[in-house]
Amino acid sequence: MYKVLTLNNISKVGLDILPLDKYEVASEFASPDAILLRSFKMHDMEIPESLKVVGRAGAGVNNIPVDKLTTRGIPVFNAPGANANAVKELVIAGMLLSSRNICQAWDYARGLTGDDAQIGKDVEAGKKKYVGYELPGKVLGVIGLGAIGVQIANIAHDLGMRVLGFDPQMTVKSAWKLKSAVEPCDNVDTLLQSCDFVTFHVPLIEATKNMINAERLKLMQDGAVILNFARGGIIDDSAVIDALDSGKLHSYICDFPTNEIKNHPKVVVLPHLGASTLESEDNCAIMVTKQMVDYLENGNITNSVNFPDMSMPRAGDNRLSVVNSNVPNMLGQISSILAEAKLNIVDMLNRSQDAIAYNLLDVEGEISDAVLVNLRAIDGVLAVRKI
């Protein structure tokens, strides 16, 4: 029986995937095999010795100590693309909120006083302050062309916008889905110079921290709009406030409130609503739960942020998974121990990613506890499982 610890509320449709005869799910476990979470911050959490896998029902993993888990041989799964439609819709909404000055106009209308005749006069007198513009013909820059960025680029093109994109690590899978009319840029600076709107869909890492700063804001067109539904910290909020105050920027649409920006008249700030739809929460939970089950029951890996993707059909009932440091002679030592135990390897797969390597081995013969002990004793082996 696998024990699954939930650190946040996880969609029921995702948890329903777990067979009751194999999985026990609770919000408290002393020795869980798996952890499912959304936004819970794990960095200060003591990692249980029993833990085999972590699943994030979402895309970003900043709240998870990935490096620490990697050294323990624990894969971290996420759900890239499962929330893409939700974020795409909110980005389009953000462009409309900005281009039509909707939030500012709404505040004006709610503040009207007097009888209906007076309100009618004030409406006609005041509406000229909120004249906006339409999206067709405007230029959108998309920084980060993963599952979300590609969907945004495509729908913006369908709305009649010219779309520029930048992503130095774009995958072949994403490239196949991107409309051919989306124009590639060689770097962020080139993109910024041509855009009326810029939207960000990158993780918060050292390379993306304060990606938009005072120097880069100078490159942007006057009256441009910045949209950040990715992560707080990608945009230098102080620099953006200065650009708004000077008139350099028209508005800033952001999903990450701070005291510095939340009350600024040219800022529309939302409480991290990017992926907050029922459909998105269901999709993320379903995807990450299926991946977790396939790993626990078969050792296969799909959409891990720290392990290589790897899938191997079963060749018999006896399977081993071994996680080790990506150094020479590990496979030789592993196979020698299996040979000494008279276990014949009938199929195997080995893949590496950065500092670790992952192995699946199907063998003929019963895998004893002594074999597991000997494999774990190899210098450089991080985790061993009999599946």
Report what the structure shows:
The radius of gyration is 26 Å and the shape is elongated. It has three domains: 1-83 and 278-309, 3-Layer(aba) Sandwich (Rossmann fold); 84-96 and 135-269, NAD(P)-binding Rossmann-like Domain (Rossmann fold), CATH 3.40.50; 312-387, ACT domain (Alpha-Beta Plaits), CATH 3.30.70. The chain is α/β, with parallel strands linked by helices. It contains 13 helices and 16 strands. It starts with a strand and ends with a strand.
Q: Could you outline the blueprint of secondary structure elements for this entry?
A:
Blueprint: E1 2-6, H1 12-15, E2 23-26, E3 34-37, E4 53-56, H2 66-71, E5 76-77, H3 84-99, H4 102-110, H5 116-126, E6 139-143, H6 147-158, E7 162-166, H7 172-177, E8 183-184, H8 188-192, E9 197-200, H9 214-219, E10 224-228, H10 237-246, E11 249-254, E12 267-269, H11 278-298, E13 319-325, H12 330-340, E14 344-353, E15 356-364, H13 369-376, E16 381-386
Helix pairs in contact: 3-6
